[in-house]
Amino acid sequence: MGKSIIRIKDVTKFYRMGAETIAAVNGLSLSIKQGEVCCLFGKSGSGKSTLLNLIAGLEKPTSGQIIFNKKHIERMNEDQLAEFRQKYVGFVFQSYNLLPTLTAMENVTLPLIFRGVPVQERNERAMEMLKAVGLEGRANHKPSEMSGGQQQRVSIARAFINSPQVVFADEPTGNLDTKTTYEMMDLITGLAKKNHQTLVIVTHDMELSEYADRIVVMMDGKIERIDEQQQSGGEEV
Ligand code: ADP
Ligand code: MG
């Protein structure tokens, strides 16, 4: 696999809670390679979401460096961070985060609206994405008129519509049943692999780590170990 797209160097994130300081991420270094499916795995409270939010530019580290394609995320101001997220990253959240008053189609077009894509192209691309996630028949449905799995499909379509270099997913199947979970993981990893996109998935479910090229096991804000997955279909020795 190719070169690093994200390099995390000795990063910490401390939260002050009254007299106490919580080290959510505590001196962590990691490189994520272009095109890899990287799974952040660990118990609740181990710092997975905090690390994801730091890499995605949603939060600022207390110290350390986060370098995305030679750009220092930790040095960016709010405007630069917003632009960075718009251009390079997509998000899938556990709770879908769809806008309730918008249709599936409108939700999927949102990232294109922010980028100033003309309306007709927007709608065409959104329809293509809805097809890719198997929801062309639900384009005019609002989130409340869809199942959890369908809502997550819409959010996956939204995450991928800009062809971002990296897609971040924080417990994307946390609210879904087992069958839907596997459908959703197949969909996300399939889209990412097809377009050579990098995928960073947070989960506490060991079953899901089978989708990963690498599993970064976290504990107390640090990396406990990294497991490399044997790729099926490889050459025999
Ligand atoms: P995980 O996603 O692995 O469950 P988190 O990254 O959410 O873990 O949290 C790691 C630690 O940091 C936990 O102890 C949590 O309570 C703490 N933490 C996370 N976010 C905040 C915050 N905004 N303020 C204070 N403490 C936080
Ligand atoms: Mg979390």
Description:
With 237 residues, the protein is α/β, with parallel strands linked by helices. The chain has a single domain (35-60, 83-228), classed as Rossmann fold (3-Layer(aba) Sandwich), CATH 3.40.50. Helix content is 31%, strand content 30%. The protein has helices at residues 48-55, 78-88, 104-114, 119-132, 148-160, 178-194, and strands at 4-17, 20-33, 37-42, 63-68, 71-72, 89-93, 166-170, 198-203, 214-219, 222-228. β7 (166-170), α6 and β8 form a beta-alpha-beta unit. α5 packs parallel to α6. The protein starts with a strand and ends in a 9-residue tail after the last strand. Adenosine-5'-diphosphate binds at residues 15, 17, 22, 24, 42, 44-50.
Instruction: Supply the CATH architecture.
Output: 3-Layer(aba) Sandwich
Overall mean confidence score, pLDDT:
93
Distance between the termini: 19 Å
Low-confidence stretches: none
List the defining traits of the structure above.
about 30% helix; binds magnesium ion; 4-stranded antiparallel sheet; Rossmann fold; alpha/beta; about 240 residues; 10 strands; 6-stranded mixed sheet; binds adenosine-5'-diphosphate; about 30% strand
